[in-house]
């Protein structure tokens, strides 16, 4: 078979590990020919490809980013986009495509599958908010990066008797904020699933500092929102998929916390540092398992499906099921665990 491989959406630690595994299983195990598609769905719109074989993939396992490049291009944003993708795939002689990405990339894959494209999905998002799989690769690395940053923020906060607001990624779900907040000993964790009352947060901080604990870390997911009427946030611009461009809530919260509490407050936005760098061992293994399973799914004709992790096993899930709704944070983590360490 001749199989195309693409990576779409934001970059993520572990993408290269998936690419390597797809290539190794398909080329060595099945005798397939692999074609790298440049910059996600844009590559199929523009007919741009890269060489992709076992030799090309040597040494990429620990590398962050993606050797194929990526973009947030949405073929359905152009009237002839889907037709151009299908025509390019036919011109390249592709029997199938492995699409590695999150909600948007796999959403396009699902729509194109309905139009006849043979595609298998691999779930990718550091936010860990994709349904159908217990974990997505990249999440573990992002949490580790955020936790290490929070550890460092503790020492500088203690030195200056400050509150520090640390913003992490998480558009729809607070998985990174909650895991990193618990692991890093945060005073408060603010997530998209539950609108926050900043006055309540400030009261926790005042009580804590009154007891002589002069350093507090507030971890906030970029998609967290205040309860209606408690704080005003500016409307965000929309991206190509209609999602708000998030980031910057910490810059609003820090001066407001200082104004309401009188405690010196600073902020740090981790931003793309969470996406970069070498994946953890856990993410390398998970990404490798996903890649091997994706190549096998292609040969089984399991199209319009996504490989996923469930109960420690790699399974196949219909893309429609994976895309039905975001996977929100388990409230037990926030209230059954994190709340006991609040304040």
Quick structural summary:
It catalyses: beta-D-fructose 6-phosphate + diphosphate = beta-D-fructose 1,6-bisphosphate + phosphate + H(+). With 343 residues, the chain is an alpha/beta fold. 39% of the residues lie in helices and 17% in strands.
The stretches of 5 or more residues where confidence is low (pLDDT under 50) are none
Structural class, please?
Answer: alpha/beta
Our count of domains comes out at 2
CATH class of the largest domain: Alpha Beta
Q: Can you tell me the CATH topology of the largest domain?
A: Rossmann fold
Helix content: 25-40%
Give a quick account of the main beta sheet: strands, pairing sense, barrel closure.
Answer: 7 strands, mixed
Under the CATH scheme, the architecture of the largest domain is 3-Layer(aba) Sandwich
Shape: elongated
Q: Which strand-content bin applies to the residues? A: 15-25%
Q: Could you give the order of strands across the largest sheet? A: 3-2-1-4-5-10-11
User: How many helical stretches?
Assistant: 11
The average pLDDT is: 92
User: End-to-end span in angstroms?
Assistant: 58 Å
Number of strands: 11
């Amino acid at each position: 078979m001749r199989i195309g491989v693409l990576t779409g959406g934001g970059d993520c630690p572990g993408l290269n590990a998936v690419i390597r595994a797809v290539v190794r299983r398909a080329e060595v195990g099945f005798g397939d020919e692999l074609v790298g598609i440049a910059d996600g769905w844009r590559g199929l719109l523009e007919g741009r490809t890269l060489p992709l074989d076992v030799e090309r993939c040597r040494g990429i396992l620990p590398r962050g980013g993606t050797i194929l490049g990526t973009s947030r291009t949405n073929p359905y944003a152009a009237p002839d986009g889907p037709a151009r993708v299908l025509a390019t795939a036919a011109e390249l002689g592709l029997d199938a495509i492995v699409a590695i990405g999150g909600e948007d990339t796999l959403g396009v894959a699902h729509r194109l599958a309905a139009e006849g494209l043979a595609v298998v999905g691999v779930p990718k998002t550091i936010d860990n908010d994709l349904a159908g799989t217990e974990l997505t690769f990249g999440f573990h690395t992002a949490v580790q990066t955020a936790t290490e940053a929070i550890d460092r923020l503790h020492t500088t906060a203690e030195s200056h008797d400050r509150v520090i607001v640390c913003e992490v990624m998480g558009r729809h779900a607070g998985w990174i904020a909650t895991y990193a907040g618990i692991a890093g000993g945060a005073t408060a964790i603010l997530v998209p699933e539950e609108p926050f009352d900043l006055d309540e947060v400030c009261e926790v901080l005042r009580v804590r500092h009154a007891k002589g604990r002069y350093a507090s870390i507030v971890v906030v997911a970029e998609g967290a929102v205040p309860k209606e009427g408690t704080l005003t946030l500016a409307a965000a611009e929309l991206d190509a998929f209609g999602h708000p461009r998030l980031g910057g809530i910490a810059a609003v919260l820090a001066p407001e916390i200082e104004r309401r509490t009188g405690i010196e407050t600073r902020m740090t936005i981790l931003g793309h540092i969470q996406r970069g760098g070498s994946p953890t061992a856990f993410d390398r293994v998970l990404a490798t398992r996903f890649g091997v399973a994706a190549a096998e799914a292609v040969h089984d004709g399991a199209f319009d499906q996504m490989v996923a992790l469930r109960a420690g096993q790699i399974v196949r899930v219909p893309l429609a099921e994976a895309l039905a709704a975001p996977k929100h944070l388990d409230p037990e983590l926030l209230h059954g665990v994190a709340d006991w360490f609040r304040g």
